[in-house]
Amino acid sequence: MRVLFVCLGNICRSPTAEGVFRAHLEQAGLASRVEVDSCGIGPWHVGKAPDARAREAAMQRGIDLSDLRARQLAVEDFERFDYVLAMDHDNLAAIEAHRPASSEAVVALFLAFAGWPERAVPDPYFGDEDGFEAVLDLVEAASRGLLVDIASRLEASP
Questions:
Q1: Which of 17, 30, 75, 107 lies 20 to 30 Å (CA to CA) from residue 41?
Q2: Residues 6+ apart with CB under 8 A from 66
Q3: Is the pTM of this model over 0.85?
Q4: What is the pLDDT along the chain (158 residues), one digit of tens a residue?
Q5: Are 60 and 16 in contact (CB under 8 A)?
Q6: Which residue out of 2, 12, 13, 153 is catalytically annotated?
Q7: What residue spans define the domains of the chain?
Q8: Level-2 CATH architecture, domain 2-156
């Protein structure tokens, strides 16, 4: 099973989701069965580490994002990943615009897994540290729901 988190530049929201979801998989004993990655719609930050504020907020919760590096969404991602999850509606529209007709990936807003199908993870980039804490809270809630969804799919597969 493979999960890809997508935001605009891959330095705030999607790497946070990647790190948090990996921690949830570890706690559930599923880390060896689920591959997790993140990327951005645009190329602005390719090769860069997540925003220092995102790294600091995550580290305060025991999640280390320091090894992650930004990359851009590629057409191959739609064949490689089972889930391609957007942080907001603009990201979702861009994902759908790049999605090949042959893709069978689940493409959705990440917060749909928290039971909030119309809600977006706000971009904290131009705000203060509180925005990064709010993102972590939302990502934690969605990660719990995504874990339930993936665990049920893994149990159903041979």
A1: 30
A2: 49, 50, 55
A3: yes
A4: 999 999 999 999 999 999 999 999 999 999 999 999 999 999 999 999 999 999 999 999 999 999 999 999 999 999 999 999 999 999 999 999 999 999 999 999 999 999 988 899 999 999 998 999 999 999 999 999 999 999 999 998 76
A5: no
A6: 13
A7: 2-156
A8: 3-Layer(aba) Sandwich (3.40)
